[in-house]
């Protein structure tokens, strides 16, 4: 931890804008149109959501990723800077900043379509240079399913370098190719270099090929050198602590928008661990942060004072 007492966190991964269309009752058929109720354009990508949440929670945060040399890229960098996030590791390259369109039902369920844009240009060298220049207590590598230029050997090199001065946190997101056998094997191999793996329930099941979340948790925990926390949305989260499956419930809320909730959970969990809380207590703190985020349509990110 830095001399200021604030947890220092590096975030590496995909950066883009999210265009959220809410109140979409059903997906349109080809050649048809359906209506939503409202829209918003947000700093996003998993790295963007996590860095934004960390900024609101008061962590010393630096982010590394790729945006385009366009207005969207400039706006994204500016928005993160306004939160006190160090964006010196955000590279503006020729091309368009990535965009994800999220269609959100009234009950919070969502579907996504993404244009990766320049996210595909993120490289191992870019990430390694960032690690050398930016000290940290925790390194979160997130959204790598949407940085296709980074292969398993590249991530292994990044994890190894990050471990020199920090704990390594990994949340790659959903594999757009659906976790083929090779992808599953690569993730399991990478977990030997990871201190904290944070999949959601669907991802945990897909990586392990199992149906039972507790069986998946045990398999992933055995592969990881540290801990695994599986995020279960409205069902809370689950981890293996001292070989006992530990469930943490989440406060029941009416979901205004769940997009980014898992990333807010990641950020809050790391902040709590950085404060010295044990994993079970950190999970409770992270669940409270995610619930705060989900139930609000505006001013969604919690601050420490909101979670006292």
Instruction: Characterize the overall form.
Output: globular
Separate helix tally = 9
Number of strands: 13
Structural class: alpha/beta
Biggest beta-sheet profile? 9 strands, mixed
Arithmetic mean pLDDT: 94
Low-confidence stretches: none
Report helical residue fraction: 25-40%
Distance between the termini: 21 Å
| Residue fraction in strands | 25-35%
For the CA atoms, what is the radius of gyration? Answer: 18 Å
What would you note in describing this structure?
This protein is α/β, with parallel strands linked by helices and 308 residues long. The protein is 34% helix and 25% strand. It is built from 9 helices and 13 strands. It has helices at residues 45-57, 71-82, 124-133, 152-162, 181-190, 201-208, 213-223, 261-274, 279-294; strands at residues 8-13, 16-22, 38-44, 60-68, 86-93, 98-104, 110-115, 138-142, 167-171, 196-197, 227-231, 237-241, 244-248. The protein has a 9-stranded mixed sheet with strand order 5-4-1-8-9-10-11-12-13, sandwiched between helices. The chain is globular and about 50 Å long. The two termini are 21 Å apart. The relative contact order is 0.14. The mean pLDDT is 94.
Which terms summarize this structure?
single chain; 308 residues; alpha/beta; nine-stranded mixed beta sheet; four-stranded mixed beta sheet
Q: Topology, pairings included?
A:
Blueprint: E1 8-13, E2 16-22, E3 38-44, H1 45-57, E4 60-68, H2 71-82, E5 86-93, E6 98-104, E7 110-115, H3 124-133, E8 138-142, H4 152-162, E9 167-171, H5 181-190, E10 196-197, H6 201-208, H7 213-223, E11 227-231, E12 237-241, E13 244-248, H8 261-274, H9 279-294
Parallel strand pairs: 1-4, 1-8, 2-6, 4-5, 8-9, 9-10, 10-11
Antiparallel strand pairs: 2-3, 6-7, 11-12, 12-13
Helix pairs in contact: 1-8, 3-4, 6-7, 8-9
């Amino acid at each position: 931890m830095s001399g200021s007492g604030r947890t220092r966190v590096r975030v590496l991964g995909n950066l883009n804008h999210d265009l959220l269309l809410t109140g979409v009752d059903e997906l349109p058929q080809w050649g048809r149109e359906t209506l939503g109720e409202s829209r918003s354009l947000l700093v996003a990508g998993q790295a963007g959501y996590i860095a934004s949440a960390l900024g609101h929670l008061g962590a010393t945060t630096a982010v590394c990723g790729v945006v385009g040399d366009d207005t969207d890229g400039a706006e994204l960098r500016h928005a993160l800077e306004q939160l006190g996030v160090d964006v010196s590791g955000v590279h503006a390259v020729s091309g368009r900043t990535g965009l994800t369109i999220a269609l959100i039902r009234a009950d919070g369920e969502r579907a996504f379509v993404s244009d990766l844009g320049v996210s595909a240009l993120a490289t191992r060298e870019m990430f390694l240079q960032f690690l050398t220049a930016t000290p940290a207590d925790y390194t979160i590598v997130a959204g790598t399913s949407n940085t296709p230029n980074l292969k398993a050997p590249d991530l292994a090199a990044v994890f190894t370098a990050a471990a020199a001065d920090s704990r390594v946190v990994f949340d790659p997101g959903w594999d757009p190719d659906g976790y083929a056998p090779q992808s599953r094997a690569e993730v399991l191999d990478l977990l030997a270099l990871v201190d904290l793996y944070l999949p959601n329930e669907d991802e945990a099941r897909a990586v392990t090929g199992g149906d039972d979340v507790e069986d998946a948790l045990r398999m992933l925990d055995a592969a990881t050198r540290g801990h695994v926390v599986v995020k279960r949305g409205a069902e809370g989260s689950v981890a293996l602590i001292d070989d006992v499956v530990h469930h943490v419930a989440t406060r029941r809320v009416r979901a205004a928008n769940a997009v980014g909730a898992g990333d807010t959970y990641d950020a809050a969990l790391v902040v709590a661990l950085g404060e010295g809380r044990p994993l079970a207590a950190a999970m409770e703190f992270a669940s409270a942060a995610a619930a705060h985020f989900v139930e609000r349509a505006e001013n969604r990110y919690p601050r420490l004072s909101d979670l006292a």
